[in-house]
């Protein structure tokens, strides 16, 4: 547990590996035994046909909530499923208490379909600043970590996002149309242009990992839920990338961002994406799947 005189950085130096172990245990205990074994009674809808929740989501979050709060006494946990049950609990991100931000199964649709593209996301934030993050894709056996100012690692090896290859179309993962307003749809239309290859995103956490690895160039996301973004944004930052909103400011986990926003491998790519998101899209331009 954290000592009264201990800083968050000192706590992380002592306990980052403990957090990793807790996440591995949550996956082994609550997530992997249900992968490709879900019955209809194990899956529920939340806000729409693409917003699913399973027993794995709920039970993994309950396990992590108890263990993380014990590891750092005085901290609070903001988890996706707890916030769905009690939206007021999200307000803890606005406070001064250390906050664990948890998405137990990021990519629940992929999990339900029996695909490998899902992960568990945990971030530790204080005063709205993310200090550390953990991204675990258990079936793919990938574990990425980041500590502010200390870099990012994938399975113990340093991550460097690098820059896109000159002359190649930018690979950009975008929000699903069902989760965008009409104004955001118009903004995203700016990406359907020469030199950009947009596609619908999968698990947000794995999209951020792809940027940190240099496998993808940028995102264009239109929602603010901290559990989807906190871990991945720090991972991208510590791998040498950056993130910007349409207002040209870094994305803030406490909200109030001008959307959509981007995370990208480098500053030039981020500014290019923001420029495309901010221009007026001609009315006759159409993105597949958007009316």
From TrEMBL:
<dbReference type="InterPro" id="IPR000760">
    <property type="entry name" value="Inositol_monophosphatase-like"/>
</dbReference>
<keyword id="KW-0460">Magnesium</keyword>
<keyword id="KW-0479">Metal-binding</keyword>
<feature type="region of interest" description="Disordered">
    <location>
        <begin position="155"/>
        <end position="175"/>
    </location>
</feature>
<dbReference type="InterPro" id="IPR020583">
    <property type="entry name" value="Inositol_monoP_metal-BS"/>
</dbReference>
<protein>
    <recommendedName>
        <fullName>inositol-phosphate phosphatase</fullName>
        <ecNumber>3.1.3.25</ecNumber>
    </recommendedName>
</protein>
<dbReference type="InterPro" id="IPR020550">
    <property type="entry name" value="Inositol_monophosphatase_CS"/>
</dbReference>
<keyword id="KW-0378">Hydrolase</keyword>
<dbReference type="Pfam" id="PF00459">
    <property type="entry name" value="Inositol_P"/>
</dbReference>
């Amino acid at each position: 547990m954290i000592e009264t005189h201990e800083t968050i950085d000192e706590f992380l130096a002592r306990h980052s590996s403990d957090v990793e172990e807790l996440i591995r245990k949550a996956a082994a205990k609550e997530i992997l035994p249900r992968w490709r074994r879900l019955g209809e009674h194990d899956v529920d809808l939340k806000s729409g046909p693409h917003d699913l929740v399973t027993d794995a989501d709920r039970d993994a979050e309950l396990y992590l909530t108890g263990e993380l709060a014990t590891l750092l006494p005085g901290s609070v946990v903001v988890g996706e499923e707890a916030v769905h049950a009690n939206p007021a609990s999200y307000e803890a991100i606005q406070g001064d208490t250390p906050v664990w931000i948890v998405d137990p199964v990021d990519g629940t649709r992929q999990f339900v379909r029996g695909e490998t593209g899902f992960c568990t996301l945990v971030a530790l934030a204080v005063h709205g600043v993310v200090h550390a993050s953990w991204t675990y894709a258990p079936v793919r056996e990938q574990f990425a970590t980041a500590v502010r100012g200390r870099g990012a690692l994938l399975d113990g090896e340093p991550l460097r996002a690098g820059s896109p290859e000159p002359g190649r179309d930018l690979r950009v993962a975008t929000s699903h149309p069902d989760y965008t307003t009409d104004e955001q749809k118009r903004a995203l239309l700016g990406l359907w242009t020469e030199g950009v290859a947009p596609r619908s995103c999968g698990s947000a956490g794995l999209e951020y990992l792809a940027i940190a690895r240099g496998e993808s160039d940028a995102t264009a996301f239109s929602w603010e839920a901290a559990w989807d973004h906190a871990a991945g944004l720090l991972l991208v930052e510590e791998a040498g990338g950056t993130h910007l909103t349409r207002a040209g400011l870094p994305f803030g986990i406490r909200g109030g961002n001008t959307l959509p926003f981007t995370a990208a491998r480098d500053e030039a790519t981020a500014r290019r994406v923001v420029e495309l998101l901010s221009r007026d899209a001609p009315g006759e331009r159409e993105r597949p799947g958007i009316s």
